[in-house]
Amino acid sequence: MYCPNCGTEAVPEAVFCNKCGCNLKERAQPAPAPASVPYALPLKNSGLAAVLSFLFTGLGQIYAGKISRGIIFILVAVGVAMVTTTLLFAGLVTDSEGVVQSFDSLYLAAIVGILIAYLAFYIWQIYDAYILTNKYNDALKQTGQEPW
Asked: 1 lies in a domain?
């Protein structure tokens, strides 16, 4: 049951609204059913969005309709790959003949740190694609239009 004056949900046995004080027994009405909005666009599959993001960073966001976010995520992945590759080659210690002797541990620590941070980002972006697709579908069901 809802207050006919302010719309606040009230327990069925309440006499007065807890928010506005309206007498609920005199003006009791059943809550209106939410209107069903027809939508012409198909719903998007949130599982597919998560799989796309798992396969390639940012694709799930693009599928969900957040193109710029997906492109930014792709650029982050490419940037991380470039930085770690650069650090990998910069950390190689060679002798005068160009033969690799060892790998500098400071570079290794930097690479590991970057990859751990990227792993957290990678997992989050999969979840983000899943949630974005659910938000897209909910908005489409309520308004009949794409949310973004």
From this structure: yes
